[in-house]
Amino acid sequence: MEYVYGAMLLHSAKQKITEAALTKLLTAAGLKPEAARAKALVAALDEVNIDEALKTAAAVPVATAAPAAAPVEKKEAKEEKKEEEKEEDTGLGALFG
């Protein structure tokens, strides 16, 4: 992940994202960069418009609250059914007990 952060930092500083620049940045941060990883990231970002990618990523809405609420409702419905079944069993047990 630090390779991507390094590339974003270089981009933010208006520097060209190269293997040498990325390696130098990571080394300055106290890391031991792997040449293969730096080379792979630079190659992957070669034809990517980073500004456009950041705009697209910022426009994607994040909706995490809705799925979390659904299981709670199902659980409550199950508990209500169990309570209804218990009430029915108690009523029938009273007739034959």
Compact overview of the structure:
This protein has 97 residues and is mostly helical. The chain has helices at residues 2-12, 19-28, 35-44, 50-59, 65-96.
Describe, in plain words, how this protein is organized in 3D.
This protein is mostly helical and 97 residues long. It folds into two domains: 1-60, Arc Repressor Mutant, subunit A; 62-97. 75% of the residues lie in helices and 0% in strands. Helix 1 (2-12) packs across helix 2 (19-28). It is elongated. It starts with a helix and ends with a helix.
How many structural domains are formed by the residues? 2
Biggest pleated sheet? none
Q: Helix proportion of residues, in percent?
A: over 70%
State the CATH architecture of the largest domain. Answer: Orthogonal Bundle
Spans of 5+ residues with little confidence (pLDDT < 50)? Answer: none
Overall strand count: 0
Strand content: under 5%
Based on helices, strands and strand pairing, what is the structural class?
A: mainly alpha
Mean pLDDT: 79
What's the order of the H and E elements?
A: HHHHH
Number of helices: 5
Distance between the termini: 68 Å
The rounded Rg comes to: 29 Å
According to CATH, the fold-level topology of the largest domain is Arc Repressor Mutant, subunit A
Shape: elongated
Q: What would CATH call the class of the largest domain?
A: Mainly Alpha
Protein topology:
Elements: H1 2-12, H2 19-28, H3 35-44, H4 50-59, H5 65-96
Helix pairs in contact: 1-2
Key words describing this protein structure:
97 residues, mainly alpha, Arc Repressor Mutant, subunit A, 2 domains
